[in-house]
Amino acid sequence: MSFGVRTDEIRTELVVEVASDPLQAIARLAGSGLFAGHVVYERPGTWTFAGGVLGEVILEPGTVRTRWADGAETARPWTGRPAAALRDAFAEAPWPAWNAYGWVAFEFSCPQAAAPGQRLAHLVVPRAEVRIEAGHAVVTGVDSVEVEQVGKLLADTTPYPVPAPAPVDVRVADDYRERVAKALEEIGAGLYQKVIVSRRLPIGFPVDVLGTFLNGRAANTPARSFLLDLDGFQATGFSPEVVAQVCADGRVMTQPLAGTRAFGLGADADTARRRELESDPKEIFEHAVSVRTSQEELYGVCDPDTVQVTGFMTIKERGSVQHLGSSVHGRLAPGRSPWDAFEALFPAVTASGIPKPEAVDAITRLDEPRGLYSGAVLTLSHDGSLDAALVLRALYSSGGRAWLRAGAGIVTGSTPDREYEETCEKLSSVAPYVVRSR
């Protein structure tokens, strides 16, 4: 039911009472085919759907491409900081107010390690946006007909079908233990303190990404969730942590998680694993050094007197696993931007290692190119706000191929068998809920 419509020269706004739960409403929009591409982003209490492309920024090694509403595409070289290249590209957006949605690859932090033809970032300003909160949706778009179509979809009471999953086996033979052993050798030689080594798990059938999102979201308790389809690249995931949250007033928060045990095995088993997690010296060390690194990173972009840790080493339940978690806060120093904060915190310490430059270098040797895995899905706005979710516990699909990926933090005291087991625990946040494409 429509509560109000506002139209101006640029966009139409419609307020709608959502007839179903937000997950169903978002699925109906994503599955409608109304838009050629879309990004879904869930924050606590808020679901956002960004449909179609009004403007676009694509970052590649050495080149940034922009396309705005007039259809003209520009491609120009860039050097130096990739975050600065994105900042400068969005500074040329032809609207006084805009929101953008998209993704950043892990190799954003090390463009020289990108695979041939790989994108470092893909962000779009959508034709239509839907924000659902407390049973109501605000629909904003540049085409009044599209806005009305979206409103009708939101008002639909027909249940959206949830397809049955085809669970994926996560225990397959690979070289993961050997690569963990190599990382332990390098840690023993003093090259770094911690590194995340990951496993890529191919799926042997085409996947229904939206169906996987529906099944997986019902079974997970993420800090953020997302679903995206841009230029044929699809992904969905249930992010356990926030890389960077920047408010319009300059407040910054990051949420390092480190230390993992299985969850969802029954009350007694979960409690036992929690106690084990809270008392394991290896897990406590891994978490403490991650929090310290996040503090140091915020000291570089925030007023040092504002940097603080809250909720130190509390348990965060994330689907099939539980983690040790903390939050680190600060306020941007004068002259610092949201992109400065994102760049300081990216890649997330819990998905790269310590010291971060040496760990990233090790990852380029121990792992194949990661792409979106351990990168970020993010939303940003003209007002200086930014919210970036760490991409873990996710499904990826491109060119008819689909895969999962998970890693574990390797520190002194790690063992190849335990780290392999940890990747299985993490993969199990998504693997049981994968849906085969019909």
Automatic annotation (TrEMBL):
InterPro entries, alphabetized: ADC_synthase (IPR005801), Anth_synth_I-like (IPR019999), Chorismate_C (IPR015890), Salicylate_synthase (IPR019996)
GO molecular function: isochorismate pyruvate lyase activity; isochorismate synthase activity; metal ion binding; oxo-acid-lyase activity
Cofactors that this protein relies on: Mg(2+)
EC number, UniProt record: 4.2.99.21, 5.4.4.2
One protein family per Pfam: Chorismate_bind
Upper taxonomic lineage: Bacteria, Bacillati, Actinomycetota, Actinomycetes, Streptosporangiales
Domain of life, per lineage: Bacteria
Annotated signal sequence range: none
Species: Thermomonospora cellulosilytica
Biological process annotations from GO: L-tryptophan biosynthetic process
SUPFAM superfamilies given in the database record: ADC synthase (SSF56322)
Protein name: Salicylate synthetase
